[in-house]
Design brief:
This protein is an alpha/beta fold. The chain folds into two domains: 142 residues, Rossmann fold; 49 residues, no CATH class. 36% of the residues lie in helices and 17% in strands. It contains nine helices and ten strands. A six-stranded parallel beta sheet has the order 7-4-1-8-9-10. A two-stranded antiparallel ribbon has the order 2-3. Strands 5-6 form a two-stranded antiparallel ribbon. Helix 8 links the parallel strand 8 and strand 9. The chain is globular and about 55 Å long. The structure holds magnesium ion. The site of magnesium ion (MG) has 7 residues, from loops.
Amino acid sequence: MERTGCPFPPLMGLSYTRSHCLEMPRHYSNWRIGLDLDNTLISYDRVFFEIAVERGFLPGDFIGTKRDIRDHVRRLPDGELEWQRLQAHVYGPAISAASAAEGALDFMRLARRRGVELSIVSHKTALANMGSEQLNLRDAAREWLRHSGMLGPEVVPEGSLYFEDTRAQKIARIASLGCTHFIDDLEEVFSDPTFPPGIERILLSATAAVPAGPYRAYASFREIAHALIAD
Ligand SMILES: [Mg+2]
């Protein structure tokens, strides 16, 4: 098990032989992996749950995903408005309580060590109304990324973080960056007819039954790392 001098560190506890290392493909330096932000790199499920319970929208024993919480809140009186307020709160002042998606930072660091370029492309509203206060959700997200260690010269450089106003602009950005792969939690992004056909579509979905579509689906960043850049 000779690892001395091997430029590639073992992937999350996996070990490899020296010959394995020498046989590693070297094409990663041509790769540019684009990453979605909300519910891909940042996981809000727990924060949505906690704040919805706090506001009396959900029973404390509620079990479900962010989508289940949304559906539940929307069915309440003034549900649509309450859901929008809840989102503005979670994506704004409460974002610091959100967690990094499991394995995401390890994946990003490993990708960079392989020579892969990384970008983050997010379709995110800039401003949210919080009563009389206006909140910049993009600034809140940028701060979260810095704090999580995902934004910086060794991972995603500040200049490779893009916020776009619409899904169409997001897709245009992904295309103009020359991404070879894009990772997103929303099937709709990949099913959009304008999504460039040459880009590998990676769907991050923890749901057991993922609808078939023009993408490869994985339940976690750990799985994505194994499939894409483990060797
Ligand atoms: Mg998303």
